[in-house]
User: Fold MarR family transcriptional regulator from Actinomadura physcomitrii.
Amino acid sequence: MRLSPLSPKPPKVGVCENVSTETISPALKIAGVQTEPPDRAAVGDPRADDTALGLLLASAHRAARGALGDELRPLGIETRHHAVLAALDRLGPTSQRRLGALLGLDKSAVVRVMDELERLGLAERKRDAHDRRAYAIELTDEGRRRARASARTAAAVGARLFGALGPGDRARLVELLTGITERAAGISTGGGASTGADTSAGGETASP
Assistant:
């Protein structure tokens, strides 16, 4: 399958009229995010401002997710379906509870995606052989075919998004994103935001 060239789509955010280019940092302009001028609480430079850095990170996620979604659409699926199909293709029949835990989805989200996949004829629920009160989810033959096609599509998109990263850059990016994810999880589970230096990341602090 030939993939069309990626055409970045800036996220739809509110744009203040008559914003001068001086009030929009270059990194945020590249990400498609515009901020308000200083007298209306401009976001600032993501190299020095935690809020701006958080917005840039969110914008990068939206852009990458949007790019993948555009390429998956010809297969008749969305990014939420791709993640579940990929997990089921790797794991085989899996309980809804385990699938939700692995993908970070709550019960209602798993049920919603499963309803969609069943309507598409890509997956089916069956009674779990080990727990008759629970259901195991498994792919249909068409679901396996679609899962592998979407995996090839995702790999091609990933190569274009991350291909310019050298091995050292990639390893460092993984390390940084993993650290941010772990700190954010600590805050959301009641750990609170740290005000001190984070010595595990070279003394840098991060804001979710």
The first helix runs from residue 26 to 30. Helices lie at 26-30, 50-72, 79-91, 96-103, 107-119, 141-162, 167-191.
